[in-house]
């Protein structure tokens, strides 16, 4: 027999475990998409800053599409059209692909701004010390740029974590989808939304605190 939250509620303890599993699914798709998206976005941001021909002609317009079109539309279109072009992807894979590209599009702008924040006088000084382009990039631009973009990157990461709820439209059972399932069964939307909000807070708050700690450490 299932343990009930109260005598007046059909919301059971097993439902909490179900939502906890869904929260893990939310965290999983978010971590993977943020990690890969950050790597891709860093590459794209560097290409855009350097004004590479391929970046200006091909990459920039594609990134503009991912930044401009609502994420939910991207998810639905990709999930339905992917099989037509030969990609047989499930809800998780489709959601992961779009979230990754969406993250990359956002991170690219952040990284481009971070590189630009390292002034030309400082870069010229590094060259005058005998550094080549790559040494300048890794020993001067990278350390300074990371500090400049870190708060913005954290904002992107938290946004993607919350936007991952939109993958529920594809049938992927993450936290929002699990909440919808339980609301349909128990007819107790306020309680379930409150529990879902608590899970989202538990996922997001450590990231915020960790980033704040890093910022304080770097400012010293």
CATH uppermost class: Mainly Alpha
Overall number of domains:
1
Number of helices: 8
> Into which percent range does the helicity of residues fall?
over 70%
Describe it.
The protein has 220 residues and is mainly α. 80% of the residues lie in helices and 0% in strands. The protein has one domain: MetI-like (MetI-like fold, Orthogonal Bundle), CATH 1.10.3720.10. 30% of the residues are buried. The N terminus is likely disordered.
Short structural summary:
By secondary structure, this protein is mainly α.
Features:
80% helix, mainly alpha, flat, 0% strand, 220 residues, MetI-like fold, 8 helices
Topology:
Blueprint: H1 13-50, H2 53-68, H3 71-81, H4 91-117, H5 120-128, H6 133-163, H7 175-186, H8 189-219
């Amino acid at each position: 027999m299932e343990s009930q939250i109260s005598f007046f509620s059909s919301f059971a303890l097993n439902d909490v475990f179900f939502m906890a599993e869904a929260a893990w699914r939310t965290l999983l798709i978010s971590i993977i998409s943020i990690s890969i998206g950050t790597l891709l976005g860093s590459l794209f941001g560097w290409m855009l800053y350097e004004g590479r021909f391929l970046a200006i002609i091909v990459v920039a317009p594609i990134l503009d599409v991912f930044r401009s079109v609502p994420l939910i539309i991207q998810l639905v279109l990709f999930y339905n059209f992917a099989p037509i072009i030969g990609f047989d992807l499930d809800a998780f894979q489709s959601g992961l692909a779009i979230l990754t590209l969406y993250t990359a599009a956002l991170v690219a702008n952040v990284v481009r701004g971070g590189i630009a924040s390292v002034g030309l006088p400082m870069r010229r000084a590094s060259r005058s010390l005998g550094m080549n382009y790559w040494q300048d990039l890794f020993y001067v631009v990278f350390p300074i740029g990371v500090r400049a973009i870190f708060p913005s990157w954290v904002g992107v990461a938290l946004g993607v974590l919350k936007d991952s709820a939109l993958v529920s439209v594809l049938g992927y059972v993450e936290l929002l989808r699990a909440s919808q399932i339980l609301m349909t069964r128990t007819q107790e939307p306020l309680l379930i939304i409150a529990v879902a909000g608590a899970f989202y807070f538990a996922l997001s708050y450590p990231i915020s605190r960790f980033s704040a700690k890093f910022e304080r450490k770097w400012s010293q």
